[in-house]
Amino acid sequence: MEKKSNINFVNVAMFALIFLFVAVSKINSISSILIVIAIIPMVLLTMGSDIKFSGFILMLACVEAYIINGAEYALLVAFVYLIPAFISGIVFLSDEYIDRNGVKYKIKVRKNGDDFRFISIKALLLSMIFFVIGSMIYIVSVKYLLNIDIIKELRVVLNDTLQNVLEVYKNSLKPSEYEKIVSSGVLDILKDTSTVVLVLCFSRSLIFSLVSYFICIKLYSCFYSEKTMCVPIESIYFPGRPVSVLFYSILLMFLIDYSYPNLGVSTMIGGYIIIMNMLFFMEGVSIIIYAVKNWKKIKSRVNVLIFAFLVIFLGVVPGISILGMFDNSFDLRKRWNLTM
Question: Does the keyword field hold Transmembrane (predicted)?
Answer without folding.
Answer: yes
